[in-house]
Amino acid sequence: MPEEEKTEKIVIFATHGPEDPERATLPFVMGNAALALDVEATVVLQGTGVILAVKNCYVHVFAGGLPPLKEQVDTFIELGGRILVCGPCIKERQITEDLLVDMAEVSAAGKVVMAAIEADAVLNY
Questions:
Q1: Which residues of 27-40 are buried (b: 16+ CB within 10 A; e: fewer)?
Q2: Predicted pLDDT at 102
Q3: From the CA atom positions of the chain, what is the Rg in Å?
Q4: In 3-state terms, what secondary structure has residue 118?
Q5: 35-61 pLDDT, tens per residue?
Q6: Which of 102, 3, 90 is nearest to 46 (CA)?
Q7: What is the distance in angstroms between the CA of the first residue and the CA of the last residue of the chain?
Q8: To which H or E segment does residue 83 belong?
């Protein structure tokens, strides 16, 4: 029986929102690079990073020298990237699930920990 090829996985933690456009954009730049290399990519939004999951928020985030965040997030979603959003973090900011982009998946710590354990690499911004 031939061995099944293992899909490589990367988890990228994004802990900065619109207050730091460069650190808000880089996780999606890296996620898109991973997806282009056929690596399964998950971006985990925590802390102020959860604000990026609010519909249309990322439209207004631009970092010098990097492509617009809207372009990066749209491409990430189109290529099949996964976005996990910290449940307690949105609750603290009074962000309800109906305000989030359609592809955002609200999660608790256990799901995030399992994603990181199963990943071949983990990045943090």
A1: bbbbbbebbeeebb
A2: 87
A3: 14
A4: helix
A5: 999 999 999 999 999 999 999 998 999
A6: 90
A7: 41
A8: strand 82-86
DSSP secondary structure of 21-76? HHHHHHHHHHHHHHHHTT-EEEEEE-GGGGGGGBTTGGGG---TTS--HHHHHHHH
Q: Give me the architecture of the 9-124 domain, per CATH.
A: 3-Layer(aba) Sandwich (3.40)
Q: What is the mean pLDDT of residues 97-107?
A: 95
Q: How far is CA 9 from CA 3, 14, 33, 82, 103, in A?
A: 18, 16, 12, 11, 18
Reference 67, options 38, 26, 34; nearest CA is 26
pTM of the model: 0.93
Burial of 86 (0-12, 13-18, 19+ CB in 10 A): buried
